[in-house]
Amino acid sequence: MSQPLSDQTIALVKATVPALEAHGLTIVHEMYSRMFQNPEIRDLFNQSHHGEASSQPRALTGAILAYANNIDNLGALAPAVERIAQKHVGLQILPEHYPHVAEALLGAIKAVLGDAATDEILGAWGEAYWFLANILIARENRIYTDQKDTVGGWNGWRDFRVEDVVRESSVISSFTLRPVDGGPVMAHEPGQYLTFWFEVPGHPAAKRNYSISSAPNGATYRISVKREAHGLASGWLHGEAKPGTVLKVAAPAGEFFLGHHVERPVVLLSGGVGLTPMVAMLEALVENGADVPVHYIHGTHDHDTHAMRDHVRALAARGKAVKVVDFHQTPHASEVAGQDYDVAGIITDEWLVANTPVATADYYICGPRPFLRHAVSTLSLAGVPSDRIHYEFFGPADELLAA
C-alpha cells in the first residue's frame, strides 16, 4: 500500500498547476518522445492514439491536471483510476513498465520547465507519481489474478481462431472467435472489450480494443468492428481476417458494463458502431429474462450503415418488455418509415426526455464523443443522477500510461 503523500508534496504539486496549464501538452509530447525511444515500451501503446491528429496527448494532459488539482481529494479520481487500471490490464502493462514512465515524465518536466523544475518540484512529482502508480499496480494485480482464477480465464495473449465472419452493414462486420486451445472462455461482463495484438506486415505491432458484441456463452466471443477510412487494424480485419485466421487476444476488461442486479428500467442508447456493447447487454437482458422495461435506442446514418437491425428486432420479440427505436439521420428515398427505421433525423433532447423513463431508468450510452457528451448533458439537465448514467466512448481516453 502506498504511504500517504506528505503535506509538502501535496502543496508543491498543487503549486505546479499553473505551469501545467501553460505547458502540460508540451510536457506530454516530450514524455511520449522519450518513452517511444524504447521499442518495448512503444509497443505497449495503441499507436493510432498518438499521431499528430490524435486527442490522446490532450487527454493525458487533462488527466495529469486533474490529478494535480485533486491530489488532496483523490476519492474524486476513483472512477478514472478504475478505467485506467482496466485499460492497462487489456494492454498487458506490468509493474516493471512503470519506472520507464516515471523516468520519461520527470525528464520531460525538467526539459520543458527548465530551472523552474527544481529538485524539490521533481521530488514531489516523483512521490506523487509513485503514489498513484502503486495504487494502479495493486488494482491491476487483483484484476490479473481474478482473470487467471476464473473458469476459462487467462493472462497474457491467447490465440483465438476466427470461426465466422458476418457483414452487418456497409461499414461493420462481426467476427466470432473461438480459442485455438479448445478450452472455455471466461464470462465477460456485457459491455466489456477484448484487446488484440495485431501484426500487420510493414507496420509495428498494433494493439486495439473492440467491444464484445455478444452475451457470455462460455465458448466464444463476438466483436463487431467498423472499418475506419484510415484504420490500420480495422482495415486489416475487414480485408484479411477470415474463418481460420488466428488472432492474439487478452482477457476481457473494462469498467463499463451492465449492472449485475437489474431492478430499474434500462435504456440502451447508442450512436453508430457504439451499438456493439449495447447488443451484448440486450442479449444478456433477454437471455436472463430481465423483468424490467428495456429501451434500445440507436442512431445511424441510413439503412446501409445500420448494423444488426434484424438481430436486435429478434431479441426484442423474445424479451418481456423490450422496445426498439431506430433513428436514421438521412434515410434513403427508398426507405420506408416504420419498416426500415422508426424516426428520421437525429435523437433530439426533447425526444429522449419525453420517450424514456428519466425518473427511474439506468442509462447506458456508447458512441462518438460528441454524441456521448450531448446525451450525458441532456440527461443530467433532465435530472437523471450521475450514478444512473453509465457511458463509454470509442477513442482515446485519459490513461496514465498507455492507450
Topology, element by element:
Elements: H1 7-15, H2 17-35, H3 39-42, H4 56-69, H5 78-90, H6 98-113, H7 119-149, E1 158-167, E2 172-179, E3 193-198, E4 206-211, E5 221-226, H8 232-240, E6 246-253, E7 266-271, H9 275-287, E8 294-300, H10 309-318, E9 322-328, E10 343-344, H11 349-355, E11 362-367, H12 369-381, E12 389-393
Helix pairs in contact: 1-7, 2-4, 2-6, 5-7, 6-7, 9-10
Protein architecture, described:
It is a single chain. This protein has 403 residues and is α/β, with parallel strands linked by helices. It is 39% helix and 19% strand. It contains twelve helices and twelve strands. It has helices at residues 7-15, 17-35, 39-42, 56-69, 78-90, 98-113, 119-149, 232-240, 275-287, 309-318, 349-355, 369-381; strands at 158-167, 172-179, 193-198, 206-211, 221-226, 246-253, 266-271, 294-300, 322-328, 343-344, 362-367, 389-393. Strands 4-3-6-1-2-5 form a six-stranded antiparallel β-sheet. The protein is globular, with a radius of gyration of 22 Å.
TL;DR?
The protein has 403 residues and is an alpha/beta fold.
